[in-house]
Amino acid sequence: MTLQECYAALGGDCAEVLSRLRSEALVQKFLLKFPADPSYDLLETSLAAENWEEAFRGAHTIKGVCQNLSLTALYRSSSALCDALRGGQPLADPALAQQVRADYETTVSAIRAFQSQLPQ
Amino acid sequence: MKQRYTILIADDSEMNRAILADMLGDEYIIIEAENGKEALEQIRTLGTRLSLVLLDIVMPELDGFGVLAEMNKEGWIEDIPVVMISTERGVEQVERAYSLGVTDFIGRPFDALTVHKRVVNTILLYAKQKQLVAMVAQQMYEKEQQNNMMIEILSHIVEFRNGESGLHVRHVHVFTEMILNHLNQKAGGARFTPAEVSTISTASALHDIGKISIPESILNKPGKLTPEEFDRMKEHTVIGAQMLEDLPIYRDVPLVRTAYEICRWHHERYDGRGYPDGLKGDDIPISAQVVALADVYDALTSPRVYKAAFSHDESIRMILAGECGAFNPLLLECLSELSGDICDAFRQTDPFQSDRQSLHNVAEALSREKDLPVSKRTIQLLEDERTRHDFFAALSNEIQFEFTVSPPVIHFTPFSAQKLGFPEEIPRPTRDPHLLALMPSKLLYHFADLLRGTSPGHPLVELDCRLNINGEKRWHRLLARATWSNDEPPRFLGGIGKAVDIHESRTQLDKLTLIASTDALTGLFNHASAREKITNRLRERPDGHFALVIFDLDYFKSANDNRGHMFGDKLLNHLAQRLRHVVRSGDIVARVGGDEFLIFLEYKNDLEAAIKRIFNALIGEYEGFSISLSMGVAQTATVGYDYDALFQAADNALYAVKRGGRGQYLFYDESMHDTLSSISPIVQAPRQTSQEEADLT
User: Fold this and answer.
1) H or E element in which residue B517 lies
2) Under an 8 A CB cutoff, do B58 and A26 touch?
3) CB B548, CB B647: distance < 8 Å
4) Using CA atoms, how far apart are residues B583 and B269, in angstroms rounded to an integer?
5) Could you tell me the mean pLDDT of each successive run of 10 residues in chain A, 120 residues long?
6) Which of B82, B100, B510, B520 has its CA 20 to 30 A from that of B578?
């Protein structure tokens, strides 16, 4: 699996991220770090605890990181969730969180698949 | 050597910080903060050492706007540029950020090229702006100087013809400025703008230019003027005004218009009885009113061809009493309130001083008003720090200093300088007589070399040496920390340090060492230290020819028994002194037991002759007691270089002498190997290990 194929699998824009970060090595380095980023955990635990402000911050960070890495699908859903939670509003539409969950799973499993066949 | 700028990245996402740091690369020193509070702490600590802050908006603890608000409150935003990074691109957010003083925005997603360019631009912009402010202030100052100079030259020409002191124009200027500023103060600051004050006081210099057309015979007439002459004299007001009005250009410039008012009406009186137009009250422009008052005051206090000078107090009294013209009561109020200040101002020796001061103020105000409290605050902080430092330095009773390589200067704290009798600042220390009296130049250079030999990671240096303070040489420990620049490679910049007086503990230690190594009765080495020294000598010179000699006094017990222990002690002392004289300086002598002595010597060829010489020099008579010795000698040539073996061999030889009837010396040979020791066990040489030592006791 190439970096391009990985991006295709997770619904991202590989050409775009390469044009900005200007190095495939750099993109790969940060992409592989993505599954370990704690923002998603923050989002899930805050949602469960109905701590809307922290949930917003989690969604906001995921959105920012996805934007930087051109993880477009997850960027879109986290961005929508972020807007719904803005200003500490309680989450009215659980489907928004559900979509983020689904996109996160897709993204992380694509990255793991990509990582698994890299030479160690 | 390129300076590396320091950038603070404040973002709660580690990923985002890492991406930014990677984009900026190695050219910068990157410091990270994961929330607003941490960011503020870093800013507080690093201050202007930070060249840029990259600031996220959404962060825990304190968000980006909170950081900006605090930076505004503390004034840091003036000195440290902030670039906002955010996914928030709403107009409202952007406007709010700009109004809080951010320089630029970087939106997500980050583009490596954009990030890099914006960072470089912002850093350069700030550096350039600081430079420009300094340049503009300098140019303003120079231009003002030139303008003032031209007016000054012109008015001096007039004064010269009038036979007035060269200071009249200057005095009128200063006086006018003071009155105007005071009027402002009384009116709560609203009456004249700084520009108006400056225009009126500058124009005041031209008040008498009309006198250029008045004949010198009238101007400088010592006696009273005739009515005709006086009428002629009065014309200088109208003529001066006319000259200005006739100017082909500049006629409508505020300076010229004001000068016109002053020229024409500076001889009007508030009661309407002045000339040339008989204006009354506030029909007279305030500029002319103030200059008229200034003119009268300076005329009174200066000597003229027709009068002597009045004192300041007398002049003020005359004006206030209405004896010299009629003035606006408000101006008279100012005059009496400012009386003391005016008196002081006119004593000023440098007539340009006040000018320079006011220009300095302009330049400062120009460098953005908000900067003033910031720099004041910084200076205040520095001063507080200095005071604190000096206080603790004085308490600690230590000599403390700071030094820089370029320029080469040492600073001492006030306490230290006083203690040493030095000035607080010493330039070129390696050539300074004070420092060279304190420590020899060799030591000074050695210390400098030690500091230069440090590194940013290991900047500490310690050196014990004797310092000559006010004629007394005392042991000190010099402790210093070198400072290194952030450049690559780092440069040695200087450092800080202190000298701690360790004289007491050091001399105490020396004394204890001496006590421990010598024999209390004779002052010779004791056995333990002799053994150590001999062992070292044998190790250092494994090819030298050495001999170890042990001897004791024959019949010493009988001397003690018959003549008392006091005599015994005196006898031993006597022998020790003789021994000292008979050996060479490199030899080692020691008292190893009651009446037993040791000599360790190096020889070239004839050992026997040397031993014989020593033996014969030691025997003889002392206070009726005939000194007889038994002496055993062991050579490295036959026994080897082990101390214990040598000692043992010499001991065996001594035993052989005792057994053979005393009063002679013998060299050790193999036949003596199994003989007994003559030395009592308690005075045996100390052994190698503490275990054996413990066994002995």
Assistant:
1) helix B503-517
2) no
3) yes
4) 111
5) 89 88 85 90 92 92 90 93 90 92 93 85
6) B510
| A70 and B CB contact within 8 Å | yes
Alpha carbon distance B386, B391 (integer Å): 8
Query: d(Cα B547, Cα B165) in Å, to the nearest integer?
Result: 100
Cβ-based contacts of B23 with chain A (< 8 Å): 21
Tell me which residue has tokens 């000597």.
B303
Residues of B in contact with A20 (CB under 8 A): 109-112
Q: Identify the closest residue of chain B to A35 by CA–CA distance.
A: B15
Hey, are the CB atoms on A67 and B108 less than 8 Å from each other? yes
CB distance A82 to A59 below 8 Å: yes
Backbone φ, ψ for residue B493 (5° rounding)? -100, -30
Tokens of B14: 């580690």
Comparing A65-69, B83-87, B538-542, B674-678, the range with the smallest average pLDDT is: B674-678
* Residues of B with Cβ-Cβ distance to A36 under 8 angstroms: none
Task: Please give the full DSSP string across A57-69, using - where no structure is assigned.
Answer: HHHHHHHHHHHHH
Helix (H) or strand (E) run with residue B105 in it? strand B104-107
Tell me the pLDDT of chain B averaged across its residues: 81
Measured distance CA(B217)–CA(B513) in Å, rounded: 99
Please spell the DSSP secondary structure of B41-72, one letter per residue.
HHHHHHGGGEEEEEEESS-SSS-HHHHHHHHH
- Domains belonging to chain B, first-starting first, are 6-110 (3.40.50.2300), 140-365 (1.10.3210.10), 374-508 (3.30.450.20), 518-696 (3.30.70.270)
In CATH, A3-116 is 3.40.50: no
Distance CA B661, CA B44 (A): 91
Closest CB from A34, A54, A68 relative to B108 = A68
Question: Which of A21, A31, A51 to probe by mutation at the B interface, max B CB count within 10 Å?
Answer: A21
Q: Which two tokens stand for residue A25?
A: 């090595």
Question: Residues for chain B: how many in total?
Answer: 697
Q: Which residues of B touch A57 (CB under 8 A)?
A: 12, 58, 60
Instruction: Name the closest residue on chain A to residue B109, using Cα atoms.
Output: A68
B14·A37 Cβ contact <8 A:
yes
In contact, B610 and B601? CB cutoff 8 Å: yes
Q: How large is the ipTM? A: 0.81
| Domain locations along chain A | 3-116
**If DSSP codes are grouped into helix, strand and coil, which group holds residue B402?**
strand
Per-residue pLDDT tens over the stretch B329-354: 999 999 999 988 888 777 654 444 44
For residue A115, count other CB atoms closer than 10 A to its CB.
14
Q: What is the number of other CB atoms lying within 10 angstroms of the CB of residue B87?
A: 20
